[in-house]
């Protein structure tokens, strides 16, 4: 992949030691670097910035692949690491260097950042106003090597610092309910799906070819999302591609399908995802029959088949006309 396809995002969230790990854990991240930006001194050192006379922020610059990770997702991660209501610093660290800010690199980033900040304000998650600045990106100076990847070099010190500074306690207080909700949703989903269905739809797994429920199903009917029940494909567009998985020339309702670039396994492919449930379905290839020339190669485990005889009974009566 060409480096020209990568983009930059720059965030100040107090001590940069604590801002690297949350971003490095994301899929689609190329590099996360600690450094200084927004000040009036070229090539500042940590001592210069710590003196509070240069105007720099401690910040992290994130290099990411926009095909795999959106700027909006980065913003969501950023807000979950900071106290956006404190104009004087972050937790135990006070002063200019520890203010929070989003440094935008283009107009689109600025617009997304402003919208994200406005949405956070409207959510009333915090009692005090959101004061995080949104300002143009300035020259970014990488910090000394000692500071790079601090959480990996000194994990015990890093953990003690996060806890001792009050950051972890603050974040748990304001975001733990979201985490608990996500855990409950995941638990509920696991209870509804088989092990294979969960692996395929949630972990982007692939079931064995020629050993799945619908690869050779020739009955008439529609195929719906196994999780949301949204109609996805029709037997009228199903064909035998010889690949061992259900293959369709087109979706039943295009708006119910999302397509994403997939670079896993060192192969460039196009992933097919359910728009409603965000479940992984399979991939689409350009080796299908006319008139579309497409082959939607879909995992049976992500689908539920509704035979034409029971469409009304199952609540899909509007599709009966297709099979007359």
Automatic annotation (TrEMBL):
Its EC number is 1.8.4.11, 1.8.4.12. The keyword Cell membrane does not apply. The keyword Lipid biosynthesis does not apply. It catalyses: [thioredoxin]-disulfide + L-methionine + H2O = L-methionine (S)-S-oxide + [thioredoxin]-dithiol; L-methionyl-[protein] + [thioredoxin]-disulfide + H2O = L-methionyl-(R)-S-oxide-[protein] + [thioredoxin]-dithiol; L-methionyl-[protein] + [thioredoxin]-disulfide + H2O = L-methionyl-(S)-S-oxide-[protein] + [thioredoxin]-dithiol. It comes from the Bacteria. GO terms for biological process: protein repair; response to oxidative stress. The active site is at residues 15, 297. It holds the Pfam family SelR. GO terms for molecular function: L-methionine:thioredoxin-disulfide S-oxidoreductase activity; peptide-methionine (R)-S-oxide reductase activity; peptide-methionine (S)-S-oxide reductase activity. Keywords: Multifunctional enzyme, Oxidoreductase. GO terms for cellular component: cytoplasm. Residues 186-308 form the MsrB domain. InterPro entries: Met_Sox_Rdtase_MsrA_dom (IPR002569), Met_Sox_Rdtase_MsrA_sf (IPR036509), Met_Sox_Rdtase_MsrB (IPR028427), Met_Sox_Rdtase_MsrB_dom (IPR002579), Mss4-like_sf (IPR011057). Belongs to the MsrB Met sulfoxide reductase family. Has an important function as a repair enzyme for proteins that have been inactivated by oxidation. Catalyzes the reversible oxidation-reduction of methionine sulfoxide in proteins to methionine. This is Multifunctional fusion protein. The gene is msrB.
